[in-house]
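Open question from group meeting: does this chain pack into something compact, or does most of it stay loose? Before anyone orders reagents, we agreed to write out a predicted structure and look at it together. Recording both the input and the output here so the notebook holds the full record.
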Amino acid sequence: GSDYEIAQILINIGLKYSMIPDSAIKYYKQALKYAKNGNLPIIEIGAYNNLAYSYLDAKNISAADSCVLHAIQLARELKNNDWLSTLYDSYGDILIDKENFKEAVTWEKKAIGAREMAAKTQASDQVRLLETLFDVRSKELIIHNTETELLLQKNRLQQTRLWLALSVLFVFGSILVFL
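Structure tokens returned:
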């Protein structure tokens, strides 16, 4: 059950060694093993993306290319537009290193499109969350108003009982005075 935490730690260590590509690659590969073992596709995508940049730093463009393409496939399967936008941007960086500027622009456009889709999804999720919070707040107000009404009714009932008791005492007092 600790695959997630170990993979995250290994990715963080890889980031610390980003200036030494060979060391970073070693940590990212270890993180990938844990991500695959623990069935953690989001961690796997992140590790592949970071691994691709380490390969770029090590001037191994073909390995970087294959890492990002694999990560793109995973992100597409998950329909994760947030990661897709990042990966498209990363692939654009790889294409720039390949000096394929025209195709890099195409991938950057894809990144912008995926970013817009991710933003729409996040906005829709936020609207649903706000609607839920509003609904909960409305119900809290209804409960509060109901509690207030119950307290007022209880107070009126006590006042009515008091007046009834005073009326009964007045009647008995009047009868005693009359007798």
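Observations to bring back to the group:
Residues 21 and 89 are 20 Å apart (CA to CA).
The mean pLDDT is 90.
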